[in-house]
Amino acid sequence: MPMPLLELLLVVAGLMAVIMVLRAVFGVSEPAQPTDDLGTERVCPRCHEVNPTHARFCAHCGIRLC
Ligand SMILES: [Zn+2]
């Protein structure tokens, strides 16, 4: 007995999985933490540690931030 509805659900689930993988690969998920340069944080270019705006050196690895 064929079950076209089940097959359709499987196809939809497969497409959703592919979309999730693509979004994970290309990093287009929801921007939970906007890290623009004019914000209130300084993201270390080396270790990506989030430092305060007034920080001149990274609190984690010590690289100069400005
Ligand atoms: Zn750092």
Structural commentary:
There is one protein chain. With 66 residues, this protein is α+β, with helices and mostly antiparallel strands. The protein has a domain at 37-66. Helices cover 35% and strands 9% of the residues. It is built from one helix and two strands. It has one helix at 4-26; strands at residues 41-43, 50-52. Strands 1-2 form a two-stranded antiparallel ribbon. A hairpin with a 6-residue loop joins strand 1 and strand 2 (50-52). The longest helix is centred in the N-terminal third of the chain and has 23 residues, at 4-26. The chain is rod-shaped and about 70 Å long. The relative contact order is 0.11. Bound molecules: zinc ion. Zinc ion (ZN) binds at residues 44, 46-47, 49, 58, 60-61, 63.
Which descriptors apply to this entry?
binds zinc ion; single chain; two-stranded antiparallel ribbon; 66 residues; rod-shaped; alpha+beta
Short recap of the structure:
This protein has a domain of 30 residues.
